Amino acid sequence: MTFLSDLRFALRSLLRAKGLAITVVLTLALGIGANAAIFSVVRGVLLRPLVNREESRLIYIRQSAPGNSVENSTFSVPEVQRDLADFVLLKADVTANSEADQALFRRFGVYGPPTTAFFGTQGRECRPFRLVGFVKADDFRSHLARFAREC
Questions:
Q1: CA pair distance 117, 115, nearest whole angstrom
Q2: Residue 132: which of 105, 150, 107 has the closest Cα?
Q3: Residue 35 shares a structural domain with residue 68
Q4: What pTM was estimated for this model as a whole?
Q5: Are 110 and 97 in contact (CB under 8 A)?
């Protein structure tokens, strides 16, 4: 038997059993529809790049002292979170102090965490705005506002 004769036989069989034909058609329609819906979600969430208001304004935020239970205390303040809404935040956890962490320290000239580095629209660090150590929320907010105006 060839493919065409197999296809004709399958269609004749489905036409004789109308209930089975309806079940097959509905199952295929449901499967195709579910596949399209899931792929649309996956494409929108995972495959397409994120849309940011100002993609070129990158800022690195990491402030913690794990031994003192001070994990991002400045950045948990609601006013600071609102101020940071216009920026893209990148975090590098260097607590393991691995070889890769040491290379990152050397690359950016960082002597240890916590360091907050601010990057301008060209992707270069605005070095005068770098913060090292813990910064109070109000001081950080004024520093961030100055960065937004000047860099």
A1: 6
A2: 105
A3: no
A4: 0.48
A5: no
What would the pLDDT profile of 18-67 be if each residue is shown by its tens digit? 888 899 899 999 999 999 999 988 887 777 665 656 655 555 555 445 55
Round the average pLDDT of the chain to a whole number and report it: 79
Domain extent at residue 72: 58-150
Kindly give the pairing relationship between strand 88-90 and strand 58-60. Answer: parallel
Question: Do 32 and 81 sit in the same domain of this protein?
Answer: no
Report the 3 state secondary structure along the chain. CCHHHHHHHHHHHHHHCHHHHHHHHHHHHHHHHHHHHHHHHHHHHHHCCCCCCCCCCEEECCCEEHHHCEECCHHHCHHHHHHHHHCEEECCCCCCCCHHHHHHHHHHCCCCCCEEEEECCCCCECHHHCEECCCCHHHHHHHHHHHHHHC
* Domain assignment present for 108: yes
Give the CATH number of the domain where residue 131 resides. Answer: 3.40.30.10
